[in-house]
Structure formats: C-alpha cells, structure tokens
C-alpha cells in the first residue's frame, strides 16, 4: 500500500484570524499529488478544517489514499494521558480534549482555561504553563520555572531526538507547540468522528485506511527547506511545500513503513531517524522532470560530417525542460518561463467604461444637429461608480476609466461640448458607442492569457495583474555551468601570463551569454589538461547546475582531455558538424547532466554557442526551441564558397545596409568578434558571392545578445 496524496499542515494557535494577505505563523497546507505540489493559506482553523475535510472527502471518493501530517504533538509524555483519562490510549485523550476545547470560526478559544483546568487535576503547579500577562488564571503559571517539575517528563522521547522540538506543556511565546496541540487534537478528533473507519492515526492505529494521520516536524529538514525556498517565500509555505514534495518522492513502501514506527503511548514524529532520506527525496528527481536518457546524444553511425540542420534537429528532438516548477507571485516572476498557461480570472475591462473625460448618455436618444441634454446630478469617475440609472435623453458627467452607469452607452469628448453644469450641448450625430470601452474587449474571463513556455517580460506582468492573476507557475531558472580547460590558459587577466600562456577569453563570454539568455551562470573556473581536475570540475558542475558548457580540449587529438574523459566516464558523442568555424562538438551526459563541449578557439566557441547552445539551453529552460532572427541583405564582399560546410562570417552592415565581412576569416582573430554586429550565414552548398549577392545576415541581437 502506498499513498497517492500527501498533505502537510503547518498549524497555528492564533486567537484571531490571520491577516488576509498570506503571512507567516498562519495555517499553511501543502498538497503533493501526481508529481506536483500546491500550497494553500488559511486564515482560521475552521476554514482550514473545512478545506481538509472536503479534500479528504474528494480523495476518498476518487479512491486515492491520503497521508496527512500535522506539525503538533499527537500525544503527551507517558503518564499524562492515563492521569487524565484513566487510559494510556492517546486517542482517549483526544476525545477528552475535544470535549473541553471550544474554538470559534474566528479562532476565539478557551485553551488557557482548559490548560488551567487540567493543571487543577494535579497537586502542585503545572504541568502546563505560559499565558498572556493580562489573563488572570491562578493555576496556569506564566513561566515554566514556577512549576513543580517532577510529575511528568518535560519531553517525549521523540522530542528529545528532534533538535529544536519544544515541550508540549508550553502554551505561550515562540514555539508554543502546547497551544497548537490543545487546539489541534480536538480538530483531528472531529475528523476521526467524521471519517470513522476510513481514517486511522499512526502509530496508534495500524489499519490500512483511505485516510491516515501522522505527526510531522518540518524542522527535521530545516536546512533543505531553506535551500529549496523560493526567493522571498514565506518560511511556513516553503516548509509545507518542500516536506510534502519530499514525502511524495519517497518510495511508497518506505513511507508506509515509516508511518508505523514509534511509540504507542507517546507517539512519534514521522521521519525521525530518516532525515537524510527525506532530504534526498526533497531535492530528488520527483520534484524535477525525469532526466535525459543516456543515449540521447547518439548520432547515427557512419555519418561523417553532420549538416548543421541535422544536428539542430537532433538536439531539438532529444532535449526537454530539465528544471522543476514553482509557484511565484507575479510581481517576482519577471524573466521566468511560464510552466503553465495562466487564465484570466475576469474580463478586462470587467465592465464597460469610458475612454475619455466627457459626458455619457444613451445613443438612441440622440440625433443630428445640435443636441442639448439635461445633466443628472452627480458624476461617474474611476473608482467612484454612479449607481443610479441615467434616463434616456439625459447625460452624465463622466471621467476616464469610470464604469458606464446604467442607461449610458456612448460618451462625447469634453472638448467637443459646452456645459453650464445643468445642460450639456454638442453637435450630433455622434457615433454609437463612441469613446466607450466594451466589457471584455481586451480579454474575456477564462481566456488563456499567455502560453506555457513564454518568458515573462515587464508588460506581461501588467497583463497578468490586470486580469487578476496573482501567482504564476514558472520553471526554476536553468543553471548553466561554464568550465575552461587547457594547460596554456591563465584563468583571468589580473594574473601574469608567460609568453606561452593565454588569458581565458571564453569563460567570461559564455557566462555573460548564459546570463543574458535569462539563465543562472555558474562559474566552474579553469582547470588544466588533467583528467582528474576536469572530472572534479564536471562533478561540481553536475551537482550545482542543470547543464555544463566547457571550452577547449573537445577534439579528438592527444591533448583533448575533455573528450577523452567524457568518453571514458560519461556518454560521449562527438558530433563532427559540417560547420565553419567550429570543429567537433562533444556532447555527453555527466551524471545525467548534459555537457556541451565547445571548441577552445573563441571565434568557434562563440559561433557554436550561438548556433547550438542557445536553442538547446532555451529548450531545457522550458522556453522552447528558438531560431535566430535574421534578414536578407546584399553582400558588400566577394567570396567563392566551396560546398560541404555551412559558414558563419563575422559581419556588420554598411551605411547602405549591405553586409561587409571581417578582413580575415582566421579563427584566431578575436577582434573580429567585437568588430562585427552579427554573422553572415552562407549555405551548405557552393556559392559565388559578389557585391550585391543576397546573403542572410543574423544580427547579434537576433541571438538574444545585446
Ligand atoms: P583546443 O580546443 O583545446 O584545441 O583549443 C583550440 C584553441 O583555442 C587553442 O589555441 C587554445 O589555446 C585556445 N583556447 C582554448 N581555450 C581557450 C580559452 N578559454 N580562451 C582563449 N583561448 C582558448
Ligand atoms: Mg587545449
């Protein structure tokens, strides 16, 4: 048996509703189902329980098994339950507490009074403590040190094993889990009553039921939660989201076995002792799409030189999005790639409104010639609707953005009128519906606003906000690691270089390209031609990034250590692409992470990055395949091009709009890259170019390079 739906509840003992705006220290629920995790925020325990009960009901009807965890203790230190109920069964105490606690729909509750009543069952002071100073409850001490401490243990055994777990006697100030239990257990008892034999509480009950409740403690994986939190995400939300995802990612039998662990009297915190497995599951593949197949870069054997278009088609077929999906507030989503298409929550505009400042009326009551319409009292302005209807033949003062009052369908521009405040005069005829915006003329409610894969730009944030969309499902940004290799390379120009050494030119270029394309650059630095050092750098890249770009050592020569290593330890496929400049492209998976081995020569490295890496990275980021934008211009040069290879020449446009090319085609001439403003693409076939021959010019900007 395993669970189909995982629910993680971060509970709250607040005495009043939480703020309307999602905030911390409130009730957050994470729901992991079918490979995705959703979160919900609730202002009151009442609202949260209603949502949970309907979720459980729906899952039960659908035949899906639910595991629901709550972050408060399900039992008290041994001896307490027996002292109160006469039984060691913690569920007897749940029933007892349910009879004592009142907890209103507005969170108003009597937990401090109940704690005092419980304290009164015992001689001496305690065990419960903590209350607001203003509450006059003589048998509930304000501080823990005022208690007689020998009656019950301060913590359960499982609490002593969980760093940071608070004692359940503490009702007030930070981490007052005692209040959460007093207000939580009666709510769970209500679920037990409602779902009867379909619900069990582990580890006290062992039956396999459609709904299973367990105790959780998100701080068990606090570090991982912090590492996986989205920018500015509320901690409670991150906790339920990450923990729900982690539990869902554990193998079913392992999770099932974990729910059965623990003590029948004191209960247990699910996952205690399995923190490493939980953390691995939280970071693991269940939260991200499946990785690429080992043979994904294989090229059909026997192909000697692969045409550029074949290589591109192969990448396009093979690659897919490799990052996980998150929910972000629209305000924070600029630059991110939509993973799901957002839908308009209502029409824009929601109601017909005025496009200008002027006077509104029903068109039917107007005609040609000078019109004089009596004005009704009041006016309609943006944010200040005029509620009374405007009778036919009357007009109303109306301002831009104001909802058209009933009886108004047409607006005449203020500048075209004269008015004494009682009558408005203007020349007819006026076009029907003039200056009036129709409801939904921009977008209808329920319409798809933007497609999945769209990269959100500032105007898209305006559109989403205007249509009431507060959050968007977006891909995590693609992390692109960049590594330079070669014994001759000095990592940065602030270090001295011997005459036989050269400064690393490729790495700053490739990192900046990745960043400009909206990815997260990860600098792996430089390593010499040493297989162990290259291997260690690739290991780091595979751990910290979603894709790795290397430059240098990618051919098949003696010193081409990157391809040698990828061949030995990765799944190398050396693509001999019929392209100039740019010799083989080494493609491989290293620990499941794709590696693009680019040529070392900066001219070839840039061309290969623009032509191959750019669309490949875009696809992996979720934004889909991209093609460079270009246009045809007359050549301002002559060249006799041989057949067999596609060529990219460093080029720029003359004042007349013709393409001139850099004086030297030598691939060592880095200055030509900066001289150019784009590339001229010459076809695979032979071509005789003379001034005026149409050629294709691909500006740098068309490669997303500013
Ligand atoms: P390779 O691909 O290792 O055979 O290198 C081809 C050429 O590119 C050699 O002349 C290298 O010195 C040069 N090269 C390799 N990596 C870089 C780099 N990061 N920056 C500048 N030049 C490089
Ligand atoms: Mg080299």
Polypeptide structure, described:
With 706 residues, this protein is an alpha/beta fold. The protein contains 17 helices and 33 strands. The strands form eight sheets. Strands 7, 24, 27, 29, 30, 31 and 33 form a seven-stranded mixed sheet that branches. Strand 29 and strand 30 (659-661) form a beta hairpin. Helix 3 crosses helix 6 (177-195) and helix 7 (222-228) crosses helix 8 (235-249). The model has no long low-confidence stretch (mean pLDDT 93). Magnesium ion is lined by residues 486, 552-553, 559, 600.
Largest sheet: 7 strands, mixed
Oligomer: single chain
What is the CA–CA distance across the termini? 55 Å
Q: Helicity, in percent? A: 25-40%
Tally of discrete structural domains: 6
Beta-strand residue percentage: 15-25%
User: What structural class should be given to the helix and strand makeup?
Assistant: alpha/beta
Rg over alpha carbons: 34 Å
Topology of this structure?
Elements: E1 5-10, E2 27-33, E3 36-42, H1 45-61, E4 66-70, H2 80-85, H3 90-100, H4 111-120, H5 157-161, H6 177-195, E5 199-201, E6 211-215, H7 222-228, H8 235-249, H9 252-259, H10 275-283, E7 306-307, H11 308-318, E8 325-329, E9 353-354, E10 358-361, E11 369-380, E12 395-398, E13 410-413, E14 417-419, E15 423-428, E16 436-437, H12 458-466, E17 471-475, E18 479-485, E19 489-490, E20 502-503, H13 506-516, E21 520-527, H14 531-544, E22 547-551, H15 561-569, E23 573-575, E24 577-580, E25 585-590, E26 593-598, H16 602-621, E27 631-634, E28 639-641, E29 646-653, E30 659-661, H17 671-675, E31 678-682, E32 687-689, E33 694-699
Parallel strand pairs: 1-4, 4-6, 5-6, 7-24, 11-12, 18-21, 18-22, 19-20, 22-26, 24-29
Antiparallel strand pairs: 1-2, 2-3, 8-17, 9-16, 10-12, 10-13, 11-15, 14-15, 23-25, 25-26, 27-33, 28-32, 29-30, 29-31, 31-33
Helix pairs in contact: 3-6, 7-8, 8-10, 11-16, 13-16
The chain binds adenosine monophosphate and magnesium ion.
């Amino acid at each position: 048996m395993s669970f189909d739906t995982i629910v993680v509840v971060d509970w709250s003992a607040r005495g009043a509703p939480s703020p309307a705006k999602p905030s911390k220290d409130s009730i957050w629920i994470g729901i992991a189902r079918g490979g995705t995790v959703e979160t919900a925020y609730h202002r009151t325990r009442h609202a949260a329980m209603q949502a949970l009960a309907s979720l459980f009901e729906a899952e039960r009807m659908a035949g899906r098994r639910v595991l629901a965890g709550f972050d408060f203790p399900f039992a008290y230190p041994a001896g307490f339950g027996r002292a109160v109920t006469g039984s060691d069964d913690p569920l007897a105490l749940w029933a007892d507490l349910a009879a004592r606690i009142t907890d209103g729909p507005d969170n108003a509750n009597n937990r401090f009074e109940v704690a005092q009543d419980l304290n009164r069952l015992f001689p001496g002071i305690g065990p419960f403590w903590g209350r607001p100073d203003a509450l006059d409850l003589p048998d509930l001490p304000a501080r823990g040190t005022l208690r007689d401490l020998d009656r019950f243990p301060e913590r359960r055994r499982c609490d002593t094993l969980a760093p940071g777990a608070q004692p359940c006697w503490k009702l007030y100030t930070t981490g007052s889990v005692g209040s959460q239990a007093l207000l939580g257990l009666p709510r769970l008892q209500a679920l037990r009553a409602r779902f009867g034999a379909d619900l069990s509480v582990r580890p006290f009950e062992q039956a396999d039921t459609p709904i299973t409740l367990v105790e959780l403690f998100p701080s068990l994986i606090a570090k991982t939660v912090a590492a996986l939190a989205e920018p500015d995400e509320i901690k409670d939300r991150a906790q339920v989201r990450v923990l729900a995802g982690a539990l869902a990612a554990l193998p079913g039998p392992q999770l099932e076995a974990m729910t059965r662990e623990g003590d029948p009297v004191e209960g247990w915190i699910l996952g205690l002792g399995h923190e490493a497995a939980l953390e691995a599951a939280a970071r693991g593949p269940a939260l991200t799409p499946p990785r690429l197949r080992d043979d994904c870069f294989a090229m059909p054997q026997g192909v000697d030189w692969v045409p550029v278009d074949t290589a591109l088609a192969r990448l396009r077929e093979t690659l897919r999005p490799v990052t996980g999906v998150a929910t972000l507030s629209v305000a924070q989503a600029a630059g991110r790639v939509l993973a799901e298409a957002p839908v308009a929550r209502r029409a824009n505009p929601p109601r017909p409104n005025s496009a200008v400042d002027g006077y509104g009326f029903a068109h039917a009551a107007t005609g040609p010639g000078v019109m004089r319409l009596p004005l009704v009292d009041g006016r309609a302005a943006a944010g200040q609707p005029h509620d009374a209807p405007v009778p036919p033949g009357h007009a109303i003062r109306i301002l831009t953005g104001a909802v058209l009052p009933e009886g108004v369908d047409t607006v005449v521009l203020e500048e075209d009128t004269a008015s004494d405040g009682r009558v408005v005069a203007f020349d007819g005829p006026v076009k029907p519906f003039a200056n009036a915006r129709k409801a939904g003329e921009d977008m209808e409610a329920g319409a798809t606003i933007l497609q999945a894969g769209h990269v959100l730009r500032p105007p898209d944030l305006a559109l989403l906000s205007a249509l009431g969309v507060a959050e968007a499902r977006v891909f995590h940004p693609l992390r692109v690691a960049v590594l330079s290799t070669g014994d001759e390379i000095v990592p940065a120009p602030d270090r001295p270089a011997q005459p036989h050494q050269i400064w690393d030119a490729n790495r700053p270029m490739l990192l900046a390209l990745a960043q400009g394309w909206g990815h997260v650059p990860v600098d792996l630095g430089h390593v010499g031609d040493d297989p162990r050092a290259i291997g260690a750098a690739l290991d780091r890249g595979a751990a910290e990034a979603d894709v790795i770009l290397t430059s240098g050592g990618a051919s098949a020569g003696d010193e081409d250590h990157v391809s040698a290593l990828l061949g030995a330890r990765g799944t190398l496929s050396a693509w001999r692409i019929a392209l100039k400049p740019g010799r083989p492209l080494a493609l491989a998976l290293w620990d499941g992470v794709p590696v693009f081995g680019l040529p070392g020569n900066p001219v070839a490295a840039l061309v290969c990055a623009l032509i191959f890496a750019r669309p490949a990275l875009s696809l992996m980021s979720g934004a889909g395949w991209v093609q460079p934008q270009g246009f045809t211009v007359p050549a301002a040069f002559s060249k006799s091009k041989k057949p067999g290879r596609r060529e990219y020449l460093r080029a720029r446009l003359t004042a007349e709009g013709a393409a001139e090319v850099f004086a030297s085609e030598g691939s060592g001439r880095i200055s030509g890259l900066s001289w150019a403003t784009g590339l001229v693409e010459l076809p695979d076939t032979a071509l005789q170019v003379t001034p005026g021959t149409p050629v294709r010019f691909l500006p740098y900007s068309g490669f997303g390079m500013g």
